[in-house]
Write a structure and sequence with these properties.
Largest sheet of chain A: 11 strands, mixed
Radius of gyration of chain A: 18 Å
Strand order of the largest sheet of chain B: 7-2-8-1-14-13-15
Order of helices and strands of chain B: EHEEHHEEHEEHEEEHHHEEEEEE
CATH class of the largest domain in chain B: Alpha Beta
Oligomer: heterodimer
Shape of chain B: globular
Shape of chain A: globular
Number of domains of chain B: 2
Structural class of chain A: alpha/beta
Helix content of chain A: 10-25%
CATH topology of the largest domain in chain B: Glutamine Phosphoribosylpyrophosphate, subunit 1, domain 1
Chain lengths: 227, 298
C-alpha cells in the first residue's frame, strides 16, 4: 500500500504520480490522506489500480476514470466520476450535484444520498445509489442504468433517451416524456447483478422501472430531416 | 462563482475566535472569486449602544475631527474607531438614525456599510486574505458572522459592489448567483420608498428581504416569499441580529454545504471551507435542499 499525503505533496504531484503507473505496476494499492475537500482528486486515471481517499473530496473526484477503482471514505463534491469511461468509483458517504454526469461506462456506487442532477446526460455508465437522489436526475440520460434504492426527487428522467431508471422508493415527479415501464426478466437480471456488485441488499423485485415515452419531437421520424 | 461562508456559534466559548474562524473559511474560498471580499460580524451587545460602520476612499481627511463634528451637528457623543478605510461609530442606540442623517450632511462622501446594534461590515476590493488582514478580522469576537468573496457578473468591481449588503438595521445578505429580475424589482421597491444604493442585483435581494420584514414578515417568511418573487440563480445567506438563514432557488445549481455540531452551525460554498472547524469529522454535514428555508437564532 502506497500512502500519499495530499496536503503535504499537493494535487499535481498526486495526479501525475497516479498517471505514471503503467498497466502492470506493482504499486496497485494507493491511499490518499488529508483530502480536505480538494478538487480533481484521482482524475484521468487509466490503469487498473485501487485508490482509497480517506476523507471527503471536492469537485470532480474520479472524473474521466478508466479501469481504476477509486473509493472515497467520506462524502464527495459536485461532478464526482463525471465522464467515467470504465472502472469503479465508490462513495461511502453522500455525493453532491451531477454525480456520474455524462459517464460512458463503469460503475459509480454512492452509499449515502446523491444530490440533484445525478446521472445527467449519462451515456452508458451504471450508477447505484443506496439512498435518495435529488431533482432533475438522469436529465437527457442516453444509455446505462441508474438504480436508486431510496426515493427520487422532482423531474426524474426529463427528456431521457434509452437509459433505464430503477427506483425502489417514491418518485416525487417524472420529467417531460418520462414514464413508468414494465419490469421484464432481463431488468430483474440487470438489477440483480448491479445491486450485488454495489453491495446493496435491496431486492430487484422491489424496484419500478422508468424510461423514455419516446413522444418528444426528436423521436418523430417526420422530423428527422430537420437534423 | 463567488464563495460564501457563514458561522453561527452555539458555544459561547468559541465567540472570541469567531473572526479568526470565519477569516480562515473565507480565505479557503478565494479561488471561487478573487476580486473583492467582505465580512459581517455580529458582536456582543454593549450597554444598549448602537453602531454605524462607514467607509471612505479618503479616510485620513474624512475621518479626522469626525467625533467633534457629529457632536456639533447632533449633540450626540460618538466614539469613532478607525480601521483602515472603515470606521465604526458607536453611540446610544436611540441616536443611530440622527447620526446617520447628520453624516449625510457633514460627510456626504462617506458610505454607510451597516447600522444596527451589533453588526459591523467590512468590505473592499482585493483578495480575502488582504481584506481580512486590513481590517484585523481575525482578532474580532462575535456571536455569528457571514463572509463573501466575489467574482463579479452583474455589476462593477467596487467597494460598494462587494458583499455583504446591508439594507436594514442589523441585517445583511450575501449571494452566490445572479438575479434576472433585479431591474424591475428595484423600480418597484424604490416606488415603495426603499433606499437602494447601487445597480447591483444582490442589493435588490437584500432590500427586498428588508422591505418584507418591515411589512411584518419574519426572516423565515421573507425568505419563503423570495422564492416566489425573485427570478434567477441564488444561494442566499442572510444575517440578522439573532442569527442567520439560508435559502437556495428551486434549481439550486449554486453549491452549498452545511455542518452542524453542538458548538456551531456552519455554511460554506464548498466543504473545503469547513475542514478546519473543530469537530468537523463528527459534524452532521448536508446540502441544503432547493427552495427550502433554513434559519437558526440565538
Amino acid at each position: 500500500m502506497q500512502t500519499f499525503d495530499l496536503e503535504a505533496l499537493g494535487l499535481r504531484k498526486l495526479n501525475s504520480t497516479l498517471h505514471e503507473q503503467v498497466e502492470d505496476t506493482n504499486q496497485t494499492a494507493w491511499e490518499v490522506i488529508n483530502p480536505k475537500g480538494s478538487h480533481a482528486i484521482a482524475v484521468g486515471l487509466d490503469t487498473p489500480i485501487e485508490v482509497t481517499i480517506k476523507g471527503s473530496t471536492g469537485y470532480y473526484c474520479g472524473g474521466m476514470n478508466q479501469k481504476a477503482t477509486i473509493k472515497v471514505t467520506g462524502s464527495a463534491g459536485p461532478g464526482t466520476a463525471e465522464n467515467m469511461m470504465s472502472g469503479k468509483v465508490i462513495i461511502e458517504g453522500d455525493a453532491s450535484q451531477y454525480a456520474g454526469a455524462t459517464g460512458h461506462g463503469g460503475l459509480l456506487v454512492i452509499k449515502g444520498n446523491a444530490s440533484s442532477r445525478c446521472g445527467i446526460s449519462m451515456k452508458g455508465i451504471n450508477i447505484v445509489v443506496h439512498g435518495n437522489i435529488g431533482h432533475m436526475s438522469a436529465f437527457m440520460a442516453q444509455s446505462g442504468n441508474l438504480i436508486v434504492c431510496g426515493d427520487a426527487g422532482d423531474a426524474l428522467g426529463d427528456s431521457c433517451y434509452e437509459a433505464r431508471l430503477f427506483v425502489r422508493g417514491s418518485v416525487k415527479s417524472l420529467g417531460a416524456d418520462c414514464e413508468e415501464k414494465e419490469m421484464r426478466p432481463e431488468h430483474i437480471q440487470i438489477l440483480k447483478e448491479l445491486l450485488a456488485e454495489a453491495e446493496s441488499d435491496a431486492k430487484p423485485e422491489e424496484f419500478k422501472r422508468y424510461g423514455s415515452a419516446r413522444n418528444l419531437y426528436n423521436f418523430d421520424v417526420d422530423n428527422a430531416a430537420a437534423y | 462563482m463567488c464563495g460564501i461562508v457563514g458561522l453561527f456559534l452555539k458555544d459561547k466559548s468559541l465567540e472570541p475566535k469567531l473572526g479568526a474562524m470565519l477569516s480562515d473559511m473565507l480565505v479557503t474560498m478565494t479561488d471561487r472569486g478573487p476580486d473583492s471580499a467582505g465580512i459581517a460580524i455580529y458582536g456582543s451587545e454593549v450597554n444598549k449602544n448602537g453602531k454605524i460602520t462607514i467607509q471612505s476612499d479618503a479616510p485620513d481627511e474624512v475621518f479626522s475631527d469626525l467625533e467633534q463634528d457629529i457632536k456639533t451637528a447632533t449633540g450626540t457623543k460618538v466614539s469613532v474607531k478607525r480601521k483602515s478605510t472603515h470606521a465604526v461609530l458607536e453611540m446610544d442606540a436611540s441616536e443611530v438614525n440622527s447620526v446617520r442623517v447628520a453624516l449625510n450632511k457633514i460627510r456626504p462622501s462617506v458610505r454607510i456599510m451597516s447600522a444596527g446594534d451589533t453588526i459591523e461590515i467590512y468590505k473592499e476590493v482585493g483578495l480575502p486574505k488582504d481584506v481580512a488582514a486590513r481590517f484585523d478580522i481575525s482578532t474580532m469576537s462575535g456571536t455569528h458572522g457571514i463572509g463573501h468573496t466575489r467574482m463579479a457578473t452583474e455589476s462593477a468591481v467596487t467597494t460598494m459592489g462587494a458583499h455583504p449588503f446591508s439594507t436594514g438595521s442589523d441585517q445583511c445578505l450575501v449571494h452566490n448567483g445572479s438575479l434576472s429580475n433585479h431591474n424591475s424589482l428595484r423600480r418597484k421597491l424604490r416606488r415603495e420608498g426603499v433606499h437602494i444604493e447601487t445597480e447591483n442585483d444582490t442589493e435588490v435581494g437584500a432590500a427586498y428581504l428588508t422591505y418584507k420584514m418591515q411589512q411584518g414578515s419574519t426572516l423565515g417568511e421573507a425568505l419563503e416569499s423570495s422564492l416566489k418573487d425573485l427570478d434567477g440563480f441564488f444561494t442566499f445567506l442572510v444575517g440578522t441580529k439573532d442569527g442567520f438563514g439560508v435559502v437556495r432557488d428551486p434549481i439550486a445549481c449554486k453549491p452549498a454545504v452545511m455542518a452542524e455540531t453542538d458548538q456551531y452551525v456552519a455554511f460554506g460554498s464548498e466543504y473545503r471551507a469547513l475542514v478546519n472547524l473543530p469537530g468537523i469529522e463528527e459534524a452532521r454535514v448536508w446540502e441544503p435542499e432547493p427552495a427550502t428555508v433554513y434559519f437558526w437564532t440565538h
